[in-house]
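Structure first, sequence second, as always.
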């Protein structure tokens, strides 16, 4: 499985990997690059079916998405990296830190969770996307990512995220939804050894503050931060999230 990726920043610097949210691409990290490039080489990648990555037939499991990242690291000759992930990207990060601890130096988990109360909403969304395409759910989904004031003052950005999600491969998106439906990383959290920072968005509807708190409580020594902003806090609260990333990494 050859994921699409972008590698940038100083060539002799330590590497930090950035994992994106469901329905987004490497572009969601653009606001963090100026800060991270001061000290890090940055590896961004697209999940299956997102951006330039291929979309094998689903369903997927979180193990599959994490194995894709390990394969990418191996292909690039990267034995040990730090990892930052938002939402689905954060779930991949939890799996990597728990199952391949020798590969993860430091960990940042943003607006994410270790499990969901019920699988059915994700199975329903997968079915809807296979029937009618990602464009059919993009306005409603993207609308929940940001607070109303941010949406009102950034209509062009919101439209760009809707358009970007509409371009995600239907099967790839549905397969990732099924990975979320079967997600349960709670047993992994207590064995994570990498120094971890957990970030929650104060207004996040999809993975509320309580989800982030539960993740932080279960990872030994994890630091917990609550920032203003919704599901894509690194976009809406970019300065604050960038400062947390730089400080922790």
């Amino acid at each position: 499985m050859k994921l699409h990726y972008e590698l940038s920043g100083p060539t002799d610097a330590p590497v930090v990997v950035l994992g994106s949210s469901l329905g987004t691409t490497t572009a969601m990290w653009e606001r963090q690059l100026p800060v991270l490039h001061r000290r890090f080489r940055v590896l961004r990648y697209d999940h299956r079916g997102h951006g330039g990555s291929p979309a094998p037939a689903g369903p997927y499991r979180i193990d599959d998405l994490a194995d894709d990242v390990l394969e990418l690291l191996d292909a690039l000759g990267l034995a040990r990296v730090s990892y930052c992930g938002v939402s689905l990207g954060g779930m991949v990060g939890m799996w990597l830190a728990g199952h391949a601890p020798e590969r993860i130096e430091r960990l940042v988990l943003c607006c994410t969770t270790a499990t969901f109360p019920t699988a059915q909403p994700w199975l329903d969304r997968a079915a809807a996307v296979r029937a009618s395409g990602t464009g059919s759910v993009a306005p409603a989904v993207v609308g929940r990512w940001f607070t109303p004031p941010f949406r009102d003052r950034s209509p062009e950005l919101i439209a760009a995220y809707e358009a970007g999600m509409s371009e995600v491969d239907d099967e790839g998106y549905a397969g990732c939804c099924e990975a979320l439906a079967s997600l349960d990383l709670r047993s992994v959290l207590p064995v994570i050894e990498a120094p971890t920072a957990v970030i929650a968005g104060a207004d996040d509807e999809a993975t509320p503050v309580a989800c982030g708190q539960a993740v932080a409580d279960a990872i030994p020594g994890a630091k917990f931060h609550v920032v203003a902003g919704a599901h894509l806090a690194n976009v809406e609260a970019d300065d604050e999230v960038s400062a947390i990333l730089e400080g922790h990494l």
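Margin note: The chain has one domain: 5-115+184-248.
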